[in-house]
Amino acid sequence: MAETGAKTDSRRLEAEYIGMLPYGEAWDMQKEFVKQIDREERSETLLLLQHPPTYTMGSDRHPEHLLFGEEELRERGISLFEIDRGGDITYHGPGQLVGYPLLYLDAVGLDLHAYLRSLEQVIIDWLSQYGIEAGRKPEYTGVWVGDEKIAAIGVKFNKARHRRGFITSHGFALNIKSGIASEGFNGIVPCGIQQYGVTSFNDLTGMSMTVEEASKGILPYFINQFNCSSV
Q1: pTM of this prediction?
Q2: Residues 155 and 173 sit within 8 Å (Cβ to Cβ)
C-alpha cells in the first residue's frame, strides 16, 4: 500500500480469529497491542472477531442518533460505549465480522484517506467473488451495495511515540448474518445516515455463511491489499 507509506517489502502480519469477545476487552486489547507495535515488541496485527450486542459512539457524537433509552438498552442486553474512533454511532453484534487492523503507517508519503480506501477495497474485492457488486458512496466511508450499507468503517490513527508515523486501531464491521439489520440497527440512526438502509452478506446471497468462514475468506484479500506475509 504505497499510498500510506508502507514498506516495499512484505510486512509481517499476525492475524487471528478470536471469536466472541466483549467490546471493552477488545478495546483494551487494541490499546495494549498498539503500544507493543510502537515499541516493535509485536508484529502488526489483524484481530478478527465478533461482539455481543453493542452500540459504539465515535468522536462525531450525536446522542440523538441513539433511539433507545437506558432502560430499553438494559432490557435488550445492548452495551453502549463512547469511544475514540472517528465517525458516529454504529452497531456490533453476533453475525457480524469485526476486523481491527493494527498497522504501522510510516510518516513518509503518509495518506490517511488512502488507508480508508484500502480497507474498503479489501471488502469490495472479497464480495466480488460471490457476484456482489459493492462499491463506495463518495460522501460516506464504508462499503455499499446499491443504497444499502454492508460494512461500516471507523478508525483511529494513534501517533507513534518511538517512530515517525501512526499506528491504526478500530477498523471495519462487515454484516454477515441474515436479518442482522433488524436485530440492532433499528435502535440507532446508523452513522447518522437516515436515507439509506443496511444489508448483510447472507441476505444478498441466500447463503448461510458463518462469521468464522467469512474471516478465513477475507484474510487473503487483506494480505494482498496491504502486502503482508502472515506469521
Answers
A1: 0.91
A2: no
**6 — pLDDT class (breaks 50, 70, 90):** very low
Looking at per-residue confidence, does 87 or 55 come out higher?
55
Catalytic residue among 191, 218, 219, 228: 191
Q: Model confidence over 133-174: pLDDT tens digits?
A: 999 998 889 999 999 999 999 999 999 999 999 999 999 999
* Dihedral sign computed on CA atoms, order 116, 119, 120, 125: positive
Q: Are 82 and 57 in contact (CB under 8 A)?
A: yes
In the chain, the domains with their CATH numbers are: 2-230 (3.30.930.10)
Closest CA to 97 of 151, 50, 158, 149: 50
228 is catalytic: no
For residue 8, the Cα-to-chain-centroid distance in whole angstroms is 25
Handedness of CA 64, 180, 136, 219 (dihedral sign): positive
Closest CA to 156 of 41, 17, 30, 39: 30
